[in-house]
Amino acid sequence: MHVAAYIKDNGGYHVGNSTCRKRWDELFANEVAAGRDPRRLFYQRWSNVGAS
Asked: In sequence order, which residues have a C-beta less than 8 Å from that of residue 31 and are 6 or more positions away?
Protein backbone atom coordinates (compact mmCIF):
# COMPACT_ATOMS: atom_id res chain seq x y z
CA MET A 1 0.00 0.00 0.00
CA HIS A 2 2.85 2.37 0.74
CA VAL A 3 4.43 1.89 -2.68
CA ALA A 4 1.23 2.72 -4.57
CA ALA A 5 0.68 5.82 -2.43
CA TYR A 6 4.29 6.93 -2.92
CA ILE A 7 4.01 6.64 -6.70
CA LYS A 8 0.81 8.69 -6.75
CA ASP A 9 2.12 11.32 -4.31
CA ASN A 10 5.28 11.80 -6.37
CA GLY A 11 3.69 12.53 -9.72
CA GLY A 12 2.98 9.04 -10.95
CA TYR A 13 -0.36 7.71 -12.00
CA HIS A 14 -2.54 5.76 -9.58
CA VAL A 15 -1.72 2.08 -9.49
CA GLY A 16 -3.23 -0.56 -7.28
CA ASN A 17 -1.40 -2.57 -4.67
CA SER A 18 -1.71 -5.76 -6.68
CA THR A 19 -0.10 -4.06 -9.67
CA CYS A 20 2.88 -3.09 -7.52
CA ARG A 21 3.14 -6.61 -6.14
CA LYS A 22 2.99 -8.22 -9.60
CA ARG A 23 5.75 -5.93 -10.86
CA TRP A 24 7.86 -6.64 -7.77
CA ASP A 25 7.45 -10.39 -8.30
CA GLU A 26 8.46 -9.99 -11.95
CA LEU A 27 11.58 -8.00 -11.05
CA PHE A 28 12.50 -10.51 -8.34
CA ALA A 29 12.15 -13.45 -10.76
CA ASN A 30 14.30 -11.65 -13.34
CA GLU A 31 17.07 -11.11 -10.78
CA VAL A 32 17.01 -14.77 -9.75
CA ALA A 33 17.04 -15.91 -13.39
CA ALA A 34 20.07 -13.70 -14.06
CA GLY A 35 21.92 -15.31 -11.15
CA ARG A 36 21.92 -12.19 -8.98
CA ASP A 37 20.96 -11.92 -5.34
CA PRO A 38 17.65 -9.99 -5.33
CA ARG A 39 18.05 -9.16 -1.65
CA ARG A 40 21.14 -7.07 -2.38
CA LEU A 41 20.30 -3.45 -3.12
CA PHE A 42 20.82 -2.50 -6.76
CA TYR A 43 23.12 0.41 -5.98
CA GLN A 44 25.38 -1.84 -3.91
CA ARG A 45 25.93 -4.05 -6.95
CA TRP A 46 27.16 -1.10 -8.99
CA SER A 47 29.13 0.71 -6.27
CA ASN A 48 32.47 -0.75 -7.39
CA VAL A 49 32.02 -0.20 -11.12
CA GLY A 50 34.75 2.07 -12.44
CA ALA A 51 36.57 2.17 -9.12
CA SER A 52 40.36 1.97 -9.39
From this structure: 37, 38
